[in-house]
Amino acid sequence: MDAPRRLFLQHAALAAGGFVLPGAHARAAATSYPFSLGVASGSPLPDSVVLWTRILNDPLNAAATPAVAFAVRWEVAHDQAFTRIVARGTASALPALAHSVHVDVRGLEPARWYWYRFMLGDAVSPAGRTRTAPKPDSMPGALKLAVASCQHWEFGSYAAHRHIAAAAPDLVAFLGDYIYEWGPYQLTHPASALRTAESFSLAEYRARYAQYKSDADLQGAHLAAPWIVTWDDHEVGNDYAGDRDERLDAGFALRRAAAYQAFYEHMPLRLVLARPGDYAGMRMYQRYDWGRLARFHVLDDRQYRATHACGPAGRGGSSSVTRACAALRDPGRSMLGREQEAWLAEGFQTSKARWNLIAQQTPMAQSSQVPIAKPGDGRFWNDGWDGYPVARQRLFDALGKSGAANALVLAGDVHTFYASDLQKNFNRPASKGNPVIATEFCGTSVTSSSRPQARTLQYLEMNRHTRYGRSDKRGFMLMDVTPEKTTTVFVGLDDVRNAQSGKATLATFEVANGKAGARQV
User: Fold this and answer.
1) How far apart are CA 47 and CA 59, in angstroms?
2) Distance between terminal CA atoms of the chain?
3) Model pLDDT, residue 32
4) Residue limits of the Phospholipase D N-terminal domain (predicted)?
């Protein structure tokens, strides 16, 4: 039996609740088990990967875990039975970081699969499967990538993650809204949403992550492959922009810092802080190379962005605006902040990759909510890139100037599958003078609800550069990246409320090397 199949069966047992952890002693109650949130890996480099766990006996009661430091043992092996250990050590799980553990394992071989696990006393964690990136100068034959986002606990099961694990990807990219800030703290997905118990403090965000990460299907997707992650708004609060939230709360900076710290405590990330302990300025944007096949430019479009253009008086957050909004034309406004813009331009300029994947939160393609018959027409959602059109143009200009090959933009946020052609002037057809400069694939949500499909079809009529749209299905994207082409599959669930839901291929697109634009196959 091959390794992905063994891992899938292990995850199936985990989801069924009937698994027995190797080496774990008998215990009277499940709450005595310290690895209740599972394990994860991520941020892969050619010689390194970050391993993660959190010591927590009861996902709904952090106080049940003693407020002392724990010495947590870890192992990395070539085989699932851990007979060929390649690295081992001990890491401290500190109360100050919610007893989270981050191990940056160095000295690994490039382009290699490994198994890893943690141990505390007699308790042994599930064994996760991870891998390193290929050598920088190599050209891998393929990369299988799963892409997901937006998994509100209140709106369905995590069946999408069960299917991601079964697909055995090389890598998972999660594009934000890993948690949502509100909903009852409970360990079952409810039949309907109840807007209560919003998270504001560090303890509350920690509890929210514990709730989400208790899900067996989500744990299984983390067991299957390393992840690269970024955040969006709901890891903090709906539609926040920089240091301003919907409430215009004077204390929002403290809330954001708490949310950022909790995000780090629950993700397999390398921490980049301007100053020790300064989670308020935690850097999220990252770059990962998959040999010369692909470069991932992972963006943060929340922390540094300008406030929303022409928003209503008395509150922050998003709204719809027309081109009469003068702020839309202000060159001083940025979505990424000037430092991140320069970093991204440098990443384009130095890229030798066959494919440049821009992994970020929200669609870049223009999306007018009304027909555009003449210049000046259009109505746009100001929380997305349509609210920052000058910054979007700077990004397109930097991409074009760099000569970086085969740009693919990955997006989430809007709970809809979209396939779009990106061009400098969205209001004119693609032509030699207005070429397609990149292809964008936007994934639907894992669970979070969306607009009716009939309205999405209207959007397609009004925005012809968007070739496909599907908002009535929850799911994820699977991408096969090869030197010759990239194939993207939109995978939809039959029933998001059913944890055992089946899936179906909704649409498949190909982008050929050297030819921007998606072709449905």
Assistant:
1) 33
2) 33
3) 85
4) 37-132
Question: DSSP of 233-295, one letter per residue?
Answer: STTTSTT-BTTB-TT--TTHHHHHHHHHHHHHHTS------SSTT-GGG----EEEEETTTEE
Give the angle subtended at the CA of 218 by the CAs of 118 and 36, to the nearest 5°: 40
Percent over 90 (pLDDT), the chain: 92
Q: Express each pLDDT in 154-207 by its tens digit.
A: 999 999 999 999 999 999 999 999 999 999 999 999 999 999 999 999 999 999
> Is residue 22's pLDDT more than 80?
no
Non-local CB neighbours of 201 within 8 Å, separated by 6+ positions = 255, 258
Q: What is the pLDDT of residues 134-156, one digit of tens each?
A: 999 999 999 999 999 999 999 99
| Mean pLDDT, the chain, integer | 94
Q: Taking Cα atoms as reference points, which of 66, 61, 95 lies closest to residue 211?
A: 61
Among candidate residues 405, 219, 225, the one with its CA nearest the CA of residue 297: 405
| Res 1: pLDDT | 52
Reported residue count of the chain is 521
Cα(128)–Cα(114) distance, rounded to whole angstroms?
8
Distance CA 315, CA 313 (A): 6
Query: Under a CB-based contact definition with an 8 Å cutoff, are residues 344 and 299 in contact?
Result: yes
Where is 333: in which H helix or E strand? Answer: none
Q: CA dist 179 to 212, 221, 448, Å? A: 7, 16, 11
> Per residue, what are the HEC states of 375-415?
CCCCEEECCCHHHCHHHHHHHHHHHHHHCCCCEEEEECCCC
Residue 386 in tokens: 């349509």
C-alpha–C-alpha distance, residues 145 and 49, integer Å: 17
- Strand partners for 480: 144, 487
Reported as a single tens digit per residue, the pLDDT across 423-442 is 999 999 999 999 999 999 99
Cβ atoms 448, 150 nearer than 8 A: yes
Torsion sign over Cα 424, 429, 435, 439: positive
* Phi and psi, residue 9, nearest 5°: -65, -35
Q: What is the pLDDT at residue 273? A: 86
**In 3D, which of 503, 502, 495, 505 has the Cα closest to residue 157?**
495
Helix (H) or strand (E) holding 427: none
Q: Tell me the C-alpha to C-alpha distance, in Å, between residue 391 and each of 105, 333, 364.
A: 37, 7, 11
SS3 string, 23-87, reads CCCCCCCHHHCCECCCEEEEEEECCEEEEEEECECCCCCHHHCCCCCEEEEEEEECCCCCCCEEE
Alpha carbon distance 260, 462 (integer Å): 38
Determine the number of helices (DSSP H) and then strands (DSSP E) in the chain: 8, 24
Percent helix / strand / coil, the chain, rounded to 5: 20, 25, 50
